[in-house]
Amino acid sequence: MKAAVVTGKEIVTIEDVDVPTPKDDEVLIKIKTAGVCGSDLHLFRGTHAFRKPPAILGHEMAGDIVKVGKDVKRFKLGDRVTVEPQVGCGTCEFCKQGLTNLCVGKKVPGTPSWVGTFVEYFNAPERTLYKLDDKVSYEVGTLIEPLAVAVHALNRAGNAAEDCIVILGAGTIGLLCQVVAREAGFKTIITTDTAPFNREMSAKLGATAVLNPIDEDVVAKVKDLTGGRGADLAIVAAGADGILDQASACVRKRGEIGLVAMITHKIPFYCYSMVFNEQTMYGAMTYETRDFVKAAEMVNRGLDLSEFVTQKLPLERSQEALDVLSQKKEDVIKVVVTV
């Protein structure tokens, strides 16, 4: 079968690889769509923490089941599905708490133990499968995975009142965090981004205020919109220098800062404000299974994310798909590869 493989820094080639043989508890899926993720860019650029070339791209997907292992009970041939792309060891302290995302021995796509999703066929254990409602397109089904990231980012907040949230960075994950915040009932949603198209998308999705951090005083605007109090929660979904300082300055005393951006370079942080205001900062790494369940329910119940898909390119043009997102020469939110 064909597979899109990162073979060097910013180089993708289409190669022939073996079709996976599903185990007794697995299914074989004919991939219809696969999403390009920020973590794929890290692999593409050579900055990923553990995935190094050569490696097959992708972990977001939707497709049809074409083969079923003998122990599979809940799914059948022809089912339209997506996959929670992580399998824990099952025995570590984190797996025992349901925190597969923190398992140090977890299996993920695009590594030697599991093929990536930029392929024609993909194998997955039954316990990782989620059915797609008939009305859900493959493209939107592919977005369940990044939506789960956003669900987890907000679920990690402990005491944040559902009043005011600031989302710093309105890329794919930032905008999905906006959708989750909207669905959760946040009354005031403030977003920032340097790209005009991203700001337009945020406004279309119903943000209370959409700010350009280059020429607007984000902190002053947040304080103005909250009567000087500050936001209850800030989600950091971009990696600009000074963004952690900005998040802390936006948040009220005893407020929270959620860090979901995978920032792979050192950035400065003046932490006095965080101590002085007794703020809490937390990280959000992918998602727990309950977050994926919630994301799948939201989409299957009618949450329309179709506007997020701004580019669709065939598997053979995977190099171009990565270039589009990496270089941002076009207006882009989510690039989807079709197989």
Please provide a written account of the structure:
There is one protein chain. This protein is an alpha/beta fold and 339 residues long. It has two domains: 2-148 and 287-338, Quinone Oxidoreductase, Chain A, domain 1 (Alpha-Beta Complex); 157-283, NAD(P)-binding Rossmann-like Domain (Rossmann fold). It contains ten helices and 16 strands. It has helices spanning 38-45, 138-142, 144-155, 172-184, 196-204, 218-225, 243-250, 272-276, 289-300, 318-327, and strands spanning 2-8, 11-16, 26-35, 55-56, 60-68, 80-83, 121-125, 129-131, 164-168, 188-192, 209-211, 231-236, 251-259, 280-283, 309-314, 334-338. The strands form three sheets. Strands 3, 5, 6, 7, 8, 15 and 16 form a seven-stranded mixed beta sheet that branches. Strands 11-10-9-12-13-14 form a six-stranded parallel beta sheet, sandwiched between helices. A three-stranded antiparallel beta sheet has the order 2-1-4, covered by helices on one side. Helix 3 (144-155) packs across helix 4 and helix 3 (144-155) crosses helix 9. It is globular, with a radius of gyration of 20 Å.
Summed up, the helix count is: 10
Proportion of residues in extended strands: 25-35%
Q: What is the CATH domain class of the largest domain?
A: Alpha Beta
CATH topology description of the largest domain: Quinone Oxidoreductase, Chain A, domain 1
DSSP helix fraction: 25-40%
Q: Kindly state the number of beta strands.
A: 16
C-alpha termini separation: 11 Å
Radius of gyration, rounded?
20 Å
CATH architecture classification name of the largest domain: Alpha-Beta Complex
Series of secondary-structure elements, N-terminal to C-terminal: EEEHEEEEEHHEHEHEHEHEHEHEHE
**What's the number of structural domains?**
2
Q: How is the biggest beta sheet arranged? A: 7 strands, mixed
Q: What would you call the shape? A: globular
Unreliable segments of 5+ consecutive residues: none
How much is the average pLDDT? 97
CATH superfamily of the largest domain: Medium-chain alcohol dehydrogenases, catalytic domain
The helix-and-strand class reads alpha/beta
